[in-house]
Amino acid sequence: MPDQPSAARPFGLGFWFLIAGVPLVAVDVSIMDVLLPDIVRQLNISVADASLVDAITVTAAGALVVPVGKLADRFGAKHLLLAGLIILIGGSLTTGLATGLVVLIAGRIAQGAAFAMVLTTVIAMLNREYPQEPARARAFALYFAVAVGALGLAPLVGALLGEYASWRWAFLANAPLAAFVALGNYRLTPKVPAVGSTRSFDALGSLLLIVALGLILFGVQQGSRYGWMKSRDGIELFGRAWTPELSPIPVLLGLGVALLIAFMLLERWRSKQQLDVVLNTRLFKVRSFVWGSLAIALAASASMGALLVVSLYAEYILDKAPIAAGLMVAPLGLAVFATGTIRARLARFSAKTIGMISVGVQLIAVVILIAAFSVKGFPLIIGAAMFILGVFMISGMSAITSLVLADIPAQLSGEAAGIQTSVRFLICGFAMVVITILLISVTAFQVQKLSLTGLSASDRTSLDAVERLTRPAIFRGLADPAEPAQHREVERYDETLRTIQQALDEGIRAAGIVAVLMLSTGFFAAARLPAQPPP
Predict the structure, then answer these.
(1) The dihedral formed by the CA atoms of 8, 14, 18 and 21, expressed in degrees to the nearest 10
(2) Which end of the chain has less neighbouring CB within 10 Å, N or C?
């Protein structure tokens, strides 16, 4: 089909096919946590190996976004988008049909790569196709609406599939949907002109960046599991276990930082030689790009942290089943339906003002969540706060992204989208680590105090069991995939568990305070954006 300017057909069928791939990859990457017990049981693998697969998926996605953005600018974003959707089909089928750990890892790596390719290229294409307001703001609002909606609904979808069908369908169902979306994009989405270059592609720089970001992301995610300095509980992989003195995490992080420094030195040398580079330093001289990327990353991190703590609160404090816990976070996804109304009411303000208002309201929503945690319950209040958080997360991220990319030359759209997504991955990763460490530390402190109160031998045994249950990051380290309620019946430590729940409750509220601090910093970053007149 011939290319048409966006002004002539701003939101035709091609636009909807373009953003349709976003919820597919978002659900594929984020749904693993709730399906973990079923995967462990059916594939007969350890929880440690299964959680490692999840970490590898996120690592692959985060490490590839910047090189993918560069390739999108060089060879055309539409080509990379179609390739990403094809990889998603293969990865979904491989994961859904996996019979063992190796095949599962291969499928999840492919899904992580597809995530990086689809998200980065869609942002790049929207930036080029919608250069003028108000169509530009609406395009990014719809993009973030489907992305946030998918993340918010993924736990509920996963719980329903785990309860009434099979975990395999969570991935197999994505394959025909991705094929349909790929066909629609091939036929209806306008081509984005490739920048092209007579200079050789920076393959070495791309490789260094991928490996460096991969090591850093993996180390950050797995530090709580393996130990930040001393090895914790040994290392188990493919059924083999060993316990080194030194944790592998500082080695991985140190190597990642060293490779990142080597990458920066290489890019500086190539730039002086006027050779092709992966990371264009000109982007970091654009004020809106720097502060806007930081504001989006901090706001997104706080919202993802809220999603995490609400899920834990529902399951471990309110003792909700996975489906009920999914219903408590689902309002974040349902916020997509209110996006249009909110965007219309905020349209008279500038993008900077919308961003500041949105981050400020998200801050209020998190404070409401902390208050609801303190009074032990009120699911309706928690659901309302999650809904408000989702609505203004979408509004703020879309407004700031529109402002950030408006100052970027069209030929650098892919690279800018990749860098912005990479910053979001890194800050989200560090934020989840801080929240997780805080949860574990506060809970462990209370457990230690409890262990000194003269419990009987049987109570101490129960306490040890609960401590093992609550120690691993994000509760992925269960001794077996049974539900917490089943553990309590078998071990008979209800009284002790209530005390631990109180400690965990304190940790969850402390994690909420961290989210408040991140949003406060995000508000400051949004305030540093350059002022622009409203559209």
Answers:
(1) 160
(2) N
Q: Is residue 95 assigned to a domain? A: no
Axis crossing angle, helix 494-527 with helix 287-312, rounded to the nearest 10 = 160
Integer Cα distance of 89 and 92 in angstroms: 5
Q: Residue 478: helix, strand or coil by DSSP?
A: coil
Q: 250 CB contacts (<8 Å, ≥6 apart)?
A: 219, 228, 229
Which residues are registered as beta bridge partners of 240?
237
The answer to whether the CB of 162 falls within 8 A of the CB of 34 is: yes
Position 142 in a domain: no
Q: Which residues make Cβ contacts (< 8 Å) with residue 169, sequence separation at least 6?
A: 96, 161
In a domain, 372, yes or no: no
Rounded Cα distance between 351 and 330, Å, is 28
Residue 456 contacts residue 246 (beta carbons within 8 Å)? no
H or E element: which one contains 268? helix 248-272
| pLDDT over 90, % of the chain | 6
Look up the pTM and report it.
0.74
pLDDT attached to residue 418: 72
Query: Residue 271: inside a domain, yes or no?
Result: yes
Nearest Cα to 21, choosing from 124, 148, 145, 114?
Answer: 114
Identify the CA nearest to 262 among candidates 215, 227, 295: 215
Bridge partners of 237? 240
Angle, helix 77-96 to helix 13-30, in steps of 10 degrees: 40
The CA distances from residue 82 to 76, 119, 146, 252, in Å, are: 11, 12, 19, 33
Integer Cα distance of 491 and 189 in angstroms: 58
Segment 148-206, tens digit of pLDDT: 888 778 888 888 887 788 888 888 988 999 999 999 999 888 877 666 555 667 778 87
Three-point CA angle 459, 464, 469, nearest 5°: 125
Domain extent at residue 241: 199-275
Number of domains in the chain: 1
- The amino acid at residue 178 is A
